[in-house]
Amino acid sequence: MLPIVAASGTRPSAFHAANYAAQVWRCVGVACGGRGHTTPISKKLLRCCCVGAAVVLARLLYLVADWRGLLQESKYVLKRGGTLFHEWGNGDASEPWVQVREKARSLFEEAGIAAPFHPGARSEAEVDSCLRNLGFLRKTEIEAGAGPAITLAEFLKQGGEFSYIWNVPKDVQAVCLPRLRNWCECQFDLHQPATMPAELHWVAYENAT
Fold first, then answer.
1. How much of the chain is in helix, strand and coil states, percent to nearest 5?
2. Where exactly are the structural domains of the chain?
3. Pick from 203, 181, 197: nearest CA to 91
4. Would you tell me how many other CB atoms lie within 10 Å of the CB of residue 127?
5. How confident is the model over 187-201, as pLDDT tens digits?
6. Cα torsion through 170, 174, 175, 178, rounded to 10
7. Contact (Cβ atoms closer than 8 angstroms) between residue 48 and residue 102
8. Residue 102: alpha-carbon gap to chain centroid
9. Which of 77, 104, 108, 191 could join 116 via S-S bond, C-beta 3.0 to 4.6 A?
């Protein structure tokens, strides 16, 4: 059985729910009772699961304030030798959409919002360090291709839906988001499609203690 905990990073919608559910299905590729089909990626995931007990955390830990406690609970429910699959999905600093996100952060901070973004983990390296401290061994990485391709114009249009500005007051958004778009127009081609994120990968950790 594979308990799945996932967040899409945007406010719930039929499109986002279906899109992300499809991605998780492609990567995990198995239903309860073994029904359904598997893919090359899902088979790699399943081969890593040496006990048959697994926790899947995808695009979640940067949303959760007590993300370290969540990882401790994950360890508690796993058997020794069980597998924790983690997918960060929050992009790399070299990607334009991540640079847009960080510019938004700075604009919100300039407007007086001390901590405008999600309260959870700030980087994949931070998550990796915490898991190692909890006694997990990093087993393997599984490449899962790129994220969906959209333009920065579409990305900016969806800006109010993204989880990293849920806590920013609407009046602050109304001032900062037009400034953000003006900055983007000077920095990027807003109509060039790009995958967001450029690369998706899962990391499998073994509960070794």
1. 45, 15, 40
2. 4-207
3. 197
4. 22
5. 999 999 998 888 888
6. 140
7. no
8. 16
9. 108
Torsion sign (Cα): 98, 99, 105, 108: negative
Domain 4-207 has CATH 3.40.50: yes
CB 56 within 8 A of CB 24: yes
64-109 confidence digits (pLDDT tens): 889 999 999 989 888 888 889 898 877 888 899 889 988 998 999 9
Give the predicted TM-score (pTM) of the model.
0.69
Reported confidence tier of residue 161, pLDDT bands at 50, 70, 90: low
Mean pLDDT to the nearest integer, 28-33: 36
Query: Residues 6 or more apart from 156 whose CB is under 8 A from it?
Result: 100, 177, 180, 181, 184, 190
Comparing C-alpha atoms, which of 209, 154, 141 is closest to residue 181?
154
Q: Which of 195, 97, 184, 116 is nearest to 150 (CA)?
A: 195
Q: Residue 95 is which amino acid?
A: E
CA distance 58 to 164: 16
Q: E-strand spans in 59-178?
A: 83-87, 136-143, 149-150
Contact 59, 23 (CB under 8 A): no
- Tokens read off for 185: 């127009």
* Alpha-carbon Rg for the chain in angstroms: 18
